[in-house]
Amino acid sequence: MKKAIVVASFGCSIKDSRERYIETIENAVKDTYKDIDCFRVFTSEIIRRKMKREENLDIDNMKSCLQKLKEENYTHVYVSVTHVIPGFEYEKVLKAVNEYKESFEEIKTARTFLDEYMGKDEVNVIKSYVNTNLKDDEAIVLVGHGTGHDAHKYYGKIENLLKIDINNLHIANIEGNPYIDDIMGELKKYKKIYLYPLLIVSGDHALNDIGSDDKESIQSKIAANGIDVKMLFTGLGENENAVNLFVDRLSEILTV
To answer: The whole model's pTM is what?
Structure first.
């Protein structure tokens, strides 16, 4: 029996952000399962090409990683994913795993951060990620990536769960409803907004689409309405509770 763990992430081409968010999760997995070989996968082909071009780093995608594991005679493979929702990137993982299912005695894929089974665990992680000590005229806006995939629905579902405890909390997305303009009428009743990426990595999207000084950024659009806005350049990948949740996801599928 020869076991392997694969940690599959969307990826990040910014070295500091990669180390701060993705490697934090990878290292937690390695520390928890010291006796099992651990491998990295980035599902974004754009990120993989950029890293090759700019840093001369070759990062496997899911299929190339599984092919190597097959050739190296691994028998049991457990895939940990750091994606927020089970969208198109997660489907890439599942497709590759399905293609190689006959190549291993066992191969399993863990759940994403949000999915149909989410509940108090995910709520508690996000509550630990944001400042919940709000005044009546203050609010939190979590900004997700958004997608055209059906899994986009989980942003709305986690918002509803969070609102049970944090009424002054809203979710907007970079791609997909609701956009920040769609909820601006609701936000105008607040004097201060705390803006958080609902992302694993605080990378290009956080720096440009959410928190930049560009007039089209989410931060600028809120400020243009006379609201004091504080952008928090952070990501779930550096939140200890989120990291532990990803490790727990892996424990759900791993046969020790």
So the answer is: 0.94
